[in-house]
Design brief:
- By secondary structure, this protein is an alpha+beta fold.
- The chain contains 8 helices and 15 strands.
- Helix 4 packs across helix 5.
- The longest helix has 24 residues.
- The protein is globular.
């Protein structure tokens, strides 16, 4: 009966981080050990030699930067698949990598490798061994992609992890086919819109129901879940009522409380949050 999480996304202001593009190298700069890549944006994007993946390189391994030579890795006019790791800022273009990764709730797919890694924040040795065994067996059964287990997977069942990796593997297979057909300077993949990400991250957990107050959105989610997370399709419910769904469940009041500068705590204490240009201060009153 209490709001747990709130996610907001504006369609007109979505970032580029995580997007995959088929780009074309427009300039190679040996002095900087970098290249500029045209990915179809207003400004060419920046790719440093240290962000270029080599075959079968595990994402977590350190790379010997002394051996890097941008001329041996890229040529002008070459088409290349890249991913945005930093949004354009001011007069600077986006920052790119060719170490492609696609995240989900519990795991991250690493393209072009055979690595099976575990987040360093999972500290218990027995749990690390359990997770390593699950992910290694899965990686051995697929081709040309590895996986890293995220911190959120700690204590999660094998079934939930496999469901998560199956989702990512199906997604990567569809992207591989799209890459073959794509022209240079085009978007190959962008991280899912918020409504899809929410359901994607439900892989392996069992919500009682998912209520949607838009008929158009409801139809989109039905199509999405049937293909990628079929175990949630039956949980989707369309809410046709006239009363706003957030008002009906008291969500609007919870949001207003959370956005107040003074936030009451269950213990009887409260927080006072003030935001300035240089910092955000949080005063904890017990």
């Amino acid at each position: 009966g209490v709001l747990q999480e709130l996610f907001i996304e504006r369609n007109h202001h979505r970032g580029l981080v995580g997007n995959l593009y088929k780009g074309r190298v427009c300039r190679v700069l040996p002095g900087m050990q970098a290249a500029f890549v045209d990915i179809g944006l207003d400004r060419a994007a920046f790719l440093h030699a240290s962000d270029i993946a080599r075959p079968f390189e595990c994402h977590e391994e350190e790379k010997d930067k002394k051996e890097l030579n941008i001329n041996a890795l890229l040529q002008e006019g070459q088409d290349i698949i890249v991913q945005v790791i930093k949004d354009p800022l001011g007069t600077k273009g986006a920052r790119l990598t060719t170490q492609l990764s696609i995240p989900s709730r519990y795991t991250v797919l690493i393209a072009g490798t055979c690595c099976a890694g575990i987040s360093q924040k999972v500290e218990e040795e027995a749990e690390r061994l359990r997770l390593k065994d699950i992910i290694t067996r899965y990686v051995d059964s697929v081709e040309n992609c590895g996986f890293i287990v995220r911190t959120a997977a700690e204590g999660v069942s094998e079934e939930a992890l496999v469901t998560d990796m199956n989702f990512l593997h199906r997604l990567w297979q569809s992207l591989t086919e799209k890459i073959l057909r794509a022209q240079a300077r085009t978007l190959i993949h962008e991280d899912l819109p918020l409504l899809y990400r929410i359901l994607r991250d439900m892989s392996g957990i069992e919500p009682e129901k998912v209520k949607v107050d838009s008929k158009i959105t409801y139809r989109k989610l039905i199509s999405f879940t049937e293909e990628f997370v079929p175990e949630i399709t039956d949980k989707l419910q369309y809410y046709p009522g006239e009363r706003p769904i957030f008002d009906l469940h008291g969500v609007e009041d919870e949001i207003k409380k959370a956005l107040d500068s003074k936030v009451q705590l269950k213990s009887g204490g409260h927080l006072v949050i003030d935001q300035t240009e240089a910092m955000t201060t949080i005063d904890v009153n017990t």
